[in-house]
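Quick one:
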Amino acid sequence: MEIAVLGGGHGCYAAAADLSAAGHAVRFWRRDAAGFKPVLERGAVTVKDADGRRDVRISRPTLDLAEAVRGAALIVIPLPATAQAGLFGALAPLLSDGQVVFLPPGTMGSYLLVKAMRAAGNRAAVAAAETGTLPWLCRKHGPAEVAISVRATRLPTGVFPAKDRDRALAVIKAAFPAVEPRDDALDGALMNAGPIIHPPLILLNAGPLEHFEKWDIHNEGTQPSIRRVTDALDAERIAVREALGYGGYHFPLADHYRADGPEWMYGRRSHKKLTDSGDWREKIDLTRHRYMLEDTELGLAFLVSCADYAGVAAPVARGLLALGSAINGRDFRKTGRTLDGLGLAAFDRAGLRKHLHEGLAA
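Output:
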């Protein structure tokens, strides 16, 4: 399958390498010419994982976004939600009928993308999907090298518009067999694990993060008291999902830490693989890191807005959002991504479900 992978982050390099290794023809685009030069010159990405270290050839690395997207059946964008607006403005006019865009994860980026298309005058029938996590636990080890510690085994995925779900998921499943259908894009967005796991870990470890040169929030930072906060926050997410009528397995984050029981998105014992890798012992700037800007300012603000809409109290989510706002000196409830900001809070429950199913007018 012809697949475009857009972006220069950790997950983008993992996507380009894994999809190429699986036999797909990958057009790999990055905006930064200097940063992308090693991949352009070598035509390959080096992968390190449990099977060792090897080079994977990339069909078409390119600096031309139109070239990357043209004719691609699937467009994969494993970028932080903070990068979506800037990319969507350039991407929106280029998409064409029948294409599928996959945002792992998205924070309702699926809806934002189609809105950007309509604002650009593009009426193409494009399906946009988002899932609950990045399909890899990975870190770049150089300008053309990525280390993959874990690959996802379950990817709960929603599609906008939901009427195109079966068609879109058939395309995505050819590249990511782990995808599982959810009702719609909001169902998929409320599977996002980032706003559940990362805000407690960075906010409750703020002292060590600012004191030590490097600190592993997933190892020393994941203590029993912090886990209890994470569990309480996740219970609020699940309460919001249930209040909005979404059922099924909610992928509680507690299952990520268990060695048995229901299989979470990364499978069993993935947390140990993550900490054993040492790749998450890092410097986290609480004013610049994506755990704050993506998962707290955008993702947690989104969860709180959904709680407001659903009539769920969510005191832990609101408290963590207030702490993030205080640390950064701005009100995340005003600057973050919310149902109101997306224009979705104006719908009643039935109207919202219908809108998510039918999509935006062409």
